[in-house]
Write a structure and sequence with these properties.
The chain is α/β, with parallel strands linked by helices and about 190 residues long. It contains four helices and eight strands. The strands form two sheets. Strands 4, 5, 6, 7 and 8 form a five-stranded parallel β-sheet that branches. Strands 2-1-3 form a three-stranded antiparallel β-sheet, with no helix packed on it. The N and C termini lie far apart (about 45 Å). About 25% of the residues are buried.
Amino acid sequence: EEVTVPQVVAGNHGDWVELSPSWIALWDKLQLEPYAIRKNVRYYVLCPENQAIDVRSFFKDLSAVYETCNFGHHRPGTDFSTAPDGIVMVPAGSIQSVESSRDTQNEIHLRQFIAKAIDLGVCIADNYSKQHQENPCVIVYFVNPFYPNNPVDSLCSISQCMAAMSLRTAGLPIAFNSVPLLDVSQVNMDV
């Protein structure tokens, strides 16, 4: 049995309409509105430090699109002292004398991502009630530099970061999202 593509429900000048998903690309031109209530989002980003410019630009653009589409506000978290703009830089990683020479650069970088994820998770948990009362939706984006040619290994690596952070933020309404580093870089090359 063939499965049909589901329709998307959106608002249009006070009415609800069902549209093909292909119409989402014309969201702003059709002046569509979300079916659900607007969600204000406070976001944080963990990313490689050598991608800071691309990442800042990407998330600034993402915030503009989110708000233009009337989804709500998409603003960076400001309660992490080492990342006042919501972007937590992870060192690119270098083999140190303490590290085993058998470890690959990806393994070292992954450990650094996990350590930063834990730090951010503790900070979010400590400050959640103060900072997020009016913005209950928190998203942590992981700009994923791991194994760009191997999606399974890439997903496994970033899942370890998410698991480490979720242990520190258990019970809080936090969403995790992995954004491939190549996507961030390509968006800024197209500009």
